[in-house]
Amino acid sequence: MNLSDRIEALMQKVQKPVRYMGGEYGAVMKDPEKVDVRYAFLFPDTYEVGMSHLGMRILYHIINRREDTWCERVFTPWVDMSAEMRAAGVPLFSLESRTPIRDFDLLGVTLQYEMSFTNVLEALDLAGIPLRREDRTDADPFVICGGPCAFNPEPLAPFVDLVAIGDGEEETLATIDVYKKWKESGLPREEYLRMAAQIPGVYVPSLYDVAYNDDGTVASIAPKPGSGAPEVVKKALVKDLNAADYPDKLIVPYGEIVHNRIMLEIFRGCTRGCRFCQAGMIYRPVRERKMDRLMALAEKLVANTGYDEISLMSLSSGDYSCLPELAHQMVERFAKKRVKISLPSQRIDAILTDTLKETQKVRKTALTLAPEAGTQRLRDVINKGVTEDDLIRSVSDAFEQGWSAVKLYFMIGLPTETDEDVLGIADLARKVRACYFAVPKEKRAPGLRITVSASVFVPKNFTPFQWCGQLDSETVIRRQMLLRDELRKIKGVDFKYHAPDLSYVEAVFARGDRRMADALERAWQLGCRFDGWSDQYRHDLWLRAFEETGIDPDFYALRERPMDELLPWDHLDAGVTKAFLRREWEKAQRAERTQDCRKGCVGCGMNRYEGACDK
């Protein structure tokens, strides 16, 4: 049997064969004989998660607009499929042409989450690509990583060839252009790495030496002599988002995916400066798409997909300068088609009333708000910039406009947190419930549902909290139980939380260095994969992997780091300066707020990028 037939046979044996079928409406097909470059885009998670990712949709569109390149999709197979593939000797394959991934020229990998790192190794192994960069030959594709976790790629450094930090639209195309030049030159494989290191935003880990102090901290990170690599790699930045390419067609899956809708990116970046939020730091500055551009894209996407929902995407959609007007126009334009306009998690202090009225006209959805902390003191520590009055006003407006379901997101374990701060979450839930019953019975929608979700805080690189340690698991669990018992006293409130073990390992990798690579590989060898899935996560195997490779995870996750310590990612530049992050960390300890930079420059450092920030 040929490979396609062997794949078909395997799909009869697994839970969700739709994950591996391909052939969906909107998938791009090309003649492999008429392209110069074959590009495989790997999302290291399941099909339904990866197909919901906006970045993948954008880059798939941009790459495939090139006549000389064909981009195809690949996802890490679920545990049942990977077992069947190994037993049958079937290599990892692309969905579009069912070509073995090892036969591609370039393998792009998006790193959205530290707990997907083992899935990267799983995919490489299933593809027959050597895990370690130095073991690869001219027969293997170059492995290129990007995404938010690429801002600290050190734990994956031995496994990747290139790392693209920042906006991927332009630098991804540049890596393809340089590949073509290298391929025509006939030069050794290593020369492509040196050539790619000259692309703005591209970091080549193998061209850098790392040394360590006796206490285990990083002593130095420097380009190898003669490598030509820059001492500091600055992130790539798309300065004009309105002019940037954006897909007007989407692949429409056969089965359900996590976000089965049109995702329309209305702007990129954030000006708020929440000190826990990595995305708010690394995606600066704010760049908006204009309304006419968004309306035109929405028209084409609805016509080309048949979706009945458009989600207005950004880090803080309530901050879009023309949000009420945009929502009104979209609701009016698509009302007859019953297309719903939805908003992701909202800023509590944003002026949402008009927008809520508009988005309610087609179908009601749950309102999602993120207070993050239960007391004003702690919200000031994290620079959330919202008050209890803001929350009460927002939910009161929503209940008056016909909402009955509210989701509230918080974190446990934030710096300086006390038991009082945690109990403040329950107090807010009580007040939200009271807002619902303050609306006259004949006016309010039936069926009140309040969901309180409390995740475990993970300190991330390139945030003001990159120096602080994570709260120990014993204290986290005690505070979770404290909050659970208090919320049980409030009728109509559902509490969701997770064990802290997974967040602990996430923190280890978020602040890890290259020495983590051996532990990562050992964990994968022991059977760790799909670690972000609670039913697959094995904390015992992770602890064993750390022990066997001589890694003290507390050194990475729980230790507060002094200001003068060289951090494993200090040779990368996310736009915001270390001096700014240091000032914010010091202000956090004083519970001192920093204003939204739309109200005046706060000196984050983004003005070093010419034309990027008008502040």
Helical run tally = 20
Major sheet attributes: 6 strands, mixed
How large is the radius of gyration? 24 Å
Low-confidence blocks of residues: none
Strand content: 5-15%
Q: Supply the helix-strand structural class.
A: alpha/beta
| Helix amount | 25-40%
What does the average pLDDT come to?
93
Walk across the major sheet and give the strand order. 2-1-3-4-5-6
Number of strands: 19
How many angstroms does the end-to-end distance come to?
62 Å
| Overall outline | globular
Can you describe what's shown?
- This protein is of the alpha/beta class and 615 residues long.
- The chain is 35% helix and 14% strand.
- The strands form six sheets. A six-stranded mixed sheet has the order 2-1-3-4-5-6. Strands 15-16-17-18 form a four-stranded parallel sheet. Strands 10-13-14 form a three-stranded parallel sheet.
- β13 (309-313), α10 (323-334) and β14 form a beta-alpha-beta unit.
- α1 (3-11) crosses α4, α3 packs across α6 (168-185) and α17 packs across α18 (539-548).
- The radius of gyration is 24 Å and the shape is globular.
- The N and C termini lie far apart (62 Å).
